[in-house]
Design brief:
The protein has helices at residues 8-25, 29-35, 40-49, 67-79, 87-101, 104-115, 233-269, 281-310, 315-339, 350-358, 368-378; strands at residues 121-124, 140-144, 147-157, 165-171, 183-189, 195-200, 212-222, 226-227, 271-272, 275-276. The protein is α+β, with helices and mostly antiparallel strands and 386 residues long. The protein folds into 3 domains: 8-119, Acyl-CoA dehydrogenase/oxidase, N-terminal domain (Butyryl-Coa Dehydrogenase, subunit A, domain 1); 123-230, Butyryl-CoA Dehydrogenase, subunit A, domain 2 (Beta Barrel), CATH 2.40.110.10; 235-385, Butyryl-CoA Dehydrogenase, subunit A, domain 3. The protein has a 4-stranded mixed β-sheet, with helices on one face. A 4-stranded antiparallel β-sheet has the order 2-3-7-6, with no helix packed on it. Strands 9-10 form a two-stranded antiparallel ribbon. Helix 7 (233-269) runs parallel beside helix 9 (315-339). The mean pLDDT is 96.
Length: 386
């Protein structure tokens, strides 16, 4: 189906991304998966190619484009199963915090090297006892003269081993009522004493993505590292989660399309009972249903992207897109794996990794259950918020 949301300039950029990804990224994915981590050099090469800041301001070395340029990078990397890179965390989730809420000095100091791929940026939200309930984070930041002193533990942190700079969600006012008004965002450089990288966690999927524990032990950072003002952290997070959830929807649909395309090729070649398994009506019906759902999902995500670029409030629609596309991704990869038969259970077949990688999509950036709560609230169905 034709997609009209991209301009000729967008498509020229896509062609550039495709050439780079075919040459520099896709051949390396199996090795990254075996090693359990990507390498710094590829980030620098992506930066040099203009893939890490196409929507960032030109004055800091970015491309000066809109969010659709970021979307193209996400789509093309997902098509190549380069999920371990998690460039969206760095480019489309973390950098906008600094661009939109950073001081002039913070922007000058951090954005240019991040766009070049020399400084990798992550965000420390989740804690061992706090997942989607961000209002109840326990990490503390206490003012001590010209410094904040941070103590706490974070987990499931993307780029936890490779990252150089982290946006840490911390409680600066333990007595604030309601509790979310006591939350702030603080920029912490990874070489700061007291910033401790814990284990790189073993996961079901995303093997090349260095998800880690992070510990803050009397970690002192300058007061100037406060991002967006004291007590504004929760408000900022809620504003930026709209884009994060759209990013996940983009990658979910792109991943669905790749898994579906590969399965279509497989069923045409694989034979059983003297004919290709594509000839069986069950196979045809299953794939017809999945292909239809992918196109429906793509149309919704495309319009969501257009509205987001326009500046519309699409919090409800982003929540809808996130849960629906990731739920589809889990169902689709399961159905496609089934159509591969026993080979689908073998890791040498990419559908096995697709199945494993899909599992987390309905969990991070707010579980799909939380997405439904948010949608219900926007529909006026929560009597406690009447």
């Amino acid at each position: 189906m034709r997609r009209d949301i991209f301009s000729p300039e967008h498509e020229m950029f896509r062609a550039q991304v495709q050439r780079f990804a075919d040459r520099e990224i896709e051949p390396k994915v199996p090795e990254w998966n075996r090693r359990g981590i990507t390498d710094r050099e590829i980030w620098k090469r992506m930066g040099a190619e203009g893939l890490l800041g196409p929507a960032m301001p030109e004055e800091y070395g970015g491309g000066g484009g809109d969010f659709l340029y970021d979307a193209i990078v996400m789509e093309e990397l997902s098509r190549r199963r380069a999920h371990g890179l998690m460039t969206a965390v760095h480019t489309s989730i973390c950098l906008p915090y600094i661009r939109d809420f950073g001081t002039a000095e913070q922007k000058r100091r951090y954005l240019p090297p991040a766009i070049r791929g020399e400084t990798l940026v992550g965000i420390c939200m989740t804690e061992p006892g706090t997942g989607s309930d961000l209002a109840n984070v326990q990490t503390r930041a206490v003012r001590d003269g010209d410094h904040w002193v941070l103590n706490g533990a974070k987990t499931f942190i993307s780029l936890g081993q490779l990252g150089d700079l982290f946006i840490v969600v911390a409680r600066t006012d333990p007595n604030a009522k309601p509790a979310h008004r006591g939350i702030s965002l603080i920029l912490v450089e990874a070489d700061t004493p007291g910033f401790v990288r814990g284990r790189k966690l073993e996961k079901l999927g995303l093997p090349a993505q260095d998800t880690s524990e992070i510990f803050l032990q009397d970690c002192r950072v300058p007061v100037a590292n406060l991002l967006g003002g004291e007590g504004n952290g929760f408000k900022i997070l809620m504003e930026k989660l709209q884009q994060e959830r759209i990013c996940i929807a983009i990658t979910a649909i792109a991943s669905c399309r790749r898994a579906l395309d590969d399965t279509l090729d497989y069923v045409k070649q694989r034979r059983a009972f003297g004919q290709p398994i594509a000839a069986f009506q069950n196979t045809q019906f299953k794939l017809a249903e999945l292909a239809t759902q992918v196109e429906v999902g793509q149309a919704f995500v495309d319009q969501l992207c257009v509205a987001h670029v326009r500046g519309d409030d699409v919090v409800m629609e982003a929540s809808m897109g996130k849960w629906w596309t990731t739920d589809l991704q889990k169902r689709l990869t399961s159905e496609c794996l089934q159509l591969h038969g026993g080979y689908g259970f073998m890791m040498e077949y990419p559908i096995a990794l697709d199945y494993a990688d899909a599992a987390v999509q309905s969990i991070y950036a707010g579980t799909n259950e939380i997405m439904k709560v948010l949608i219900a609230r926007r529909l006026g169905l929560d009597p406690t918020r009447a």
